[in-house]
Amino acid sequence: MNTTKSEEKLQESLKQVEALLERYRVLETLAHIQEGPKRDLLEALAHRQNLAELEKKVAGLHPADLAYVLESLPGEERRLVFTQARPRKRGEALVEAAPAVREQLLDSLSREDLLAMLRELDPDDLAYLAESLPEDAREEVYRSLDERAASWALSQAAHPDGSVGGLMSRDVVSVREDRSLARLFEELRGRTLPRPIDAVYVVDARNVLRGALPVDAVLTRDPAACVADAMTTDVVTFSPGDKADQAAKAFERYDLVSAPVVDERGKLVGRLAVDAVVDFIREQAEMKALRRAGLAGEEDLFAPAWDSAKNRWLWLAVNLVTAFLASRVIGLFEETIAGLVALATLMPIVASVGGNTGNQTVALVIRGLSLGQVGPANVRHLLGKELSVSVLNGLVWGTVMGAAATVLYGNVPLGAVMAGAVLLNLVVSAVVGVAVPLVLHRAGRDPAQGASVLLTFTTDSMGFFIFLALARAFLV
Question: Is residue 287 part of a domain?
Fold first, then answer.
């Protein structure tokens, strides 16, 4: 499907839903200002005609598109659209929706509607939603499943977040190694295949993985050939306890479409598909972007103001404390600034240049950590390289800023102080830019969370201190 046309179609669907909601609101308003039989007539018109059209529109949306529409609507309208979907589509849309939106919509459902929706879901989707569900409702739905499906859903829910086990699917196509390709082809024709599928996994009588048979081999090799002769044994496998981010790197490195998941005895227990990996990568990228901005967690765009305010408190508080400490550094040099007012106009430049350089270093180090390229063996080399870069940039841009200060204020010593402060603060920013992500990573924290706040505090306070201390020593 053309990506541009798909996006245009999605936006058009959102506009159509918004138009139906607007018409519904207008009729509801008219009904409330009318009295007598006209009011009843208008209310009936609003509910029958508009909601029927809305239900029809929702029924034609893909679950992922419905999730996008729900995320783009305020609370009341979101709930109204959600209730127009059939139980199965509601559940599938919740799987695709952002966690904050999912929580709100689940809270809006009655117990009967919730159970009706959950009974329509397959075990994989049920396991995905498990943590968001009330315990009693979850257990009741598990009891209604057959033994194999209930066991799968329970085992899936037990896997920790960020693990391969939490992403894998039970939709696996496997075949015994002693089968012929002709027999395998007939078996595949008679069943629904999971998507995407690029290989059939070959197992022995104990369900131990022996290899993989590419789908194109089933179609192109001699039908009389044995599966064991056509399969490949060079297969990338994962275990349920492996980290999902490491699996994502393997998918990228080896251009995988799917991969088998095996237990500690080598038995085939599931399959990890590229669509689940892509969803994981997207969610992780979104969370890191929010953390870099100082948000404690994912936030619904249309959440109540109080909830959004609490979500932003943590790093706002940290930023307030660090800004206050930086201001105290300036307070130490009040007499120096009073003696040469030009210092007040120049010192933000020193801090800003240091912060920008530090952010560049932080971004590179975080990327290296995420790709596994930074470790104890090369940290010293990395720090030396960043220090060299900062010294080179400090000499060039410190000279430029020193010359500019000299021209503006006609004060050569001031220009020299400016140049020296820029150079020294860039060196500080390089050290902090390398150290902060590494320390956070070593402590088991996400390096992206809080790095920018700590870096800004350090480069601001040190930039002010270096510049004003040099000014006190040589100018005032």
Answer: no
